[in-house]
Structure formats: structure tokens, C-alpha cells
């Protein structure tokens, strides 16, 4: 992710917590917790132009009413305090992908939001000679066969880095880097699945995250905001003492079978994985930087999801409305 994209993402997180606060504080006791993430996001907001600030504000405002309908506990007040807090970045490394956590002071209840600006990627995981993706993703260390297969690829990239080469200097990178690396990745996934049939569920838990949340995605060019439900553990959409949401958010069905994993048709850079229960995932590999590095990054995206993952489309209102 570029610095510009990162700043815009942080700015979008900032306006979301501010928009939440404005929708709530007059109706119940609400507080934004101050921490270093709040400061970083506020600075990012200050560094974007006014036109983008206007768009991000409209994007957040468009989805607020739907979120309040989905979560009656947000507005329910028993004189306890509702807190809004940005998660520290280290939480994402630990598996909790929520950007904003909303909780109540005297009630064992909380929900989370994962805030995305103009992209729907699930993860941006890396592959390298020393990174054991199997152990990190689904708890099964990569085999020696995989390590032997990728070693010459990354050795070549290490040499290219030492020679200060750009990726554009490697004319045959698709045939000598991307294709053999992705084939080794495919072979390793298949070997791991033979050893551990719970791999599909573990992999999805890695990609989705360890906690339930609503994924908020701003599509600026379409002028819509999506709310997507990842209710794996059933903690979302809880009824309040007075109100029950008119919308039901079901628990998400995780996959139990790996159906196929293969190269995407006519692609040398993308692998597709097909799982049961409606899941389809793409893994697109790319360099992410101009200079050659002995590592490559995945853009991992859900291409298909089960009906239990609900998506709500919220259209932006005009500035005059």
C-alpha cells in the first residue's frame, strides 16, 4: 500500500469515528478514547484535500443509519458510557482486524468495524524465503519440498536486489518468478490439506480475523458505502432491552472442504481457491515496489462468499441534501 493510500485509509477511519460520535453523543453518554492511533488518523485527515474530506464525510454519513439499525445496543442507554476506540496496529498482526471497537462500560458487549477505503482486499500477506506462510495462516509449518522449491527463486531476487535492479529490469519475471512461486504455493496448499482437513476453516479464520465485525467499504467512484457482516461467532446484531433490529444478521458458515486451487484462467500472477459453502478466494502476487526485493506481496480478495455474509449498499446523499 502506498503512503498516499495509507493516509487516505487512516483519514477515512478518523471521519468514521467522528461521525459515529456525532450520531450518538446527544442520545447517550459517549466518549472517544484518546490514543496514538487517534492522533495518527487525525493527522492523516488534516493532510488530505477538502474535496476528499467532503467525500469521506458523505461516505460515513451514508452508512450510519444502517449501522444503528443493525445494532440496537448502540443507542440503548442504561446511563452507562459507550466508548469508541481505534485499535493499535499490533492488534491486526495478532489476528484482530477491527479498526474501531465500540463497547459499553457496564455491559459485556462490544462490536467492531473494519474500515476500508476504495478496496476490498482481505489481506496483503507476503511470501519470502524465510516466511513460513503455512504456520502463520493455518498452523501447519511449510514442508521442506516447498522450501526447496522457492529457494532458488528468492536467491535470484536477492542477487538482483544487491545489483540495485528494478522489477522492470527482469524481463522474464512471470516465467521465472511468478509462475514457479505460485505453483509451489499451490502444491503446498494441497499437501497441507491432505495432512489437515480443517485447513479451509483455519485459513478463513486467518483471512477474516479472530473477532466478529462489520466491514465498511467506501467506493468513492460509485458514491456508495458497503456494510458487510462477518458474524462468525454470533456476537453481532444483539437485541437491546427495548428494541430488536428488523434486520437479522446470521452467523457465517465457514468452509469445511477445499474443492480446488489453481491458476486463474489466462493469468500468470493470480491463483484462485474454491471452497465449499460458497467461498472463493483469489491470491494475486505482485512486487509492490519499484526496486527488486527478495519477497513478494499477495493481494488476497474474496471473489465469492456465502449468503450468510450480508452486504448492505448505502447510497451517498448529495452535499445539498
Describe this structure as you would to a colleague:
The radius of gyration is 21 Å and the shape is globular. By secondary structure, the chain is of the alpha+beta class. Helices cover 36% and strands 22% of the residues. The two termini are 34 Å apart. It has helices at 3-24, 36-46, 50-70, 89-93, 133-138, 144-162, 173-195, 199-208, and strands spanning 30-32, 82-86, 100-104, 110-117, 126-128, 213-219, 224-230, 258-263, 270-275, 280-286, 295-304, 311-315. The chain has 2 domains: 3-120 and 210-252 and 308-315, no CATH class; 126-204 and 254-304, no CATH class. It has a 7-stranded mixed sheet with strand order 1-2-3-4-6-7-12, covered by helices on one side. The model has no long low-confidence stretch (mean pLDDT 94).
| Global mean pLDDT | 94
- The order of strands across the largest sheet is 1-2-3-4-6-7-12
Write down the secondary-structure element order: HEHHEHEEEHHHHEEEEEEE
Number of strands: 12
The computed structural class is alpha+beta
Taken together, the total number of domains comes to 2
- Which range does the strand content fall in? 15-25%
> What is the overall silhouette?
globular
User: What is the rounded distance between the termini?
Assistant: 34 Å
Low-pLDDT ranges: none
Alpha-carbon Rg, integer: 21 Å
Largest sheet, in brief, is: 7 strands, mixed
Task: Give helix % range.
Answer: 25-40%
> Can you count the helices?
8
Amino acid at each position: 500500500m502506498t503512503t498516499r493510500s495509507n493516509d487516505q485509509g487512516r483519514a477515512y477511519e478518523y471521519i468514521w469515528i467522528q461521525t459515529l460520535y456525532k450520531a450518538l453523543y446527544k442520545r447517550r453518554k459517549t466518549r472517544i478514547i484518546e490514543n496514538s492511533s487517534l492522533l495518527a488518523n487525525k493527522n492523516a485527515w488534516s493532510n488530505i484535500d477538502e474535496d476528499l474530506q467532503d467525500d469521506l464525510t458523505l461516505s460515513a454519513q451514508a452508512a450510519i443509519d444502517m449501522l444503528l439499525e443493525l445494532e440496537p445496543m448502540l443507542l440503548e442507554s442504561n446511563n452507562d458510557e459507550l466508548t469508541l476506540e481505534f485499535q493499535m496496529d499490533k492488534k491486526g498482526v495478532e489476528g484482530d482486524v477491527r479498526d474501531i471497537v465500540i463497547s459499553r462500560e457496564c455491559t459485556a458487549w462490544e462490536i467492531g468495524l473494519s474500515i476500508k477505503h476504495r478496496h476490498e482486499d482481505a489481506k496483503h500477506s507476503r511470501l519470502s524465503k524465510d516466511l513460513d506462510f503455512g504456520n502463520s495462516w493455518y498452523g501447519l509449518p511449510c514442508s521442506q519440498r516447498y522450501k526447496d522449491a522457492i529457494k532458488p527463486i528468492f536467491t535470484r531476487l536477492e542477487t538482483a536486489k544487491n545489483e540495485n535492479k528494478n522489477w522492470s529490469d527482469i524481463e522474464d519475471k512471470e516465467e521465472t518468478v511468478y509462475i514457479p512461486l505460485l505453483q509451489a504455493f499451490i502444491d503446498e496448499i494441497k499437501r497441507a490439506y491432505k495432512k489437515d482437513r480443517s485447513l479451509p476453516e483455519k485459513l478463513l479464520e486467518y483471512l477474516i480475523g479472530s473477532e466478529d465485525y462489520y466491514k465498511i467499504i467506501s467506493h468513492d467512484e460509485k458514491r456508495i458505502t458497503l456494510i458487510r457482516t462477518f458474524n462468525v461467532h454470533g456476537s453481532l446484531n444483539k437485541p437491546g432491552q427495548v428494541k430488536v433490529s428488523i434486520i437479522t444478521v446470521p452467523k457465517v458458515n465457514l468452509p469445511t472442504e477445499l474443492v480446488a486451487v489453481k491458476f486463474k484462467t489466462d493469468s500468470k500472477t493470480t491463483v484462485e481457491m474454491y471452497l465449499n459453502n460458497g467461498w472463493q478466494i483469489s491470491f494475486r502476487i505482485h512486487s509492490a515496489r519499484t526496486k527488486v526485493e527478495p519477497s513478494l506481496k499477495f493481494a488476497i480478495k474474496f471473489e465469492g462468499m456465502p449468503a450468510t455474509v450480508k452486504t448492505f449498499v448505502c447510497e451517498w446523499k448529495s452535499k445539498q441534501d
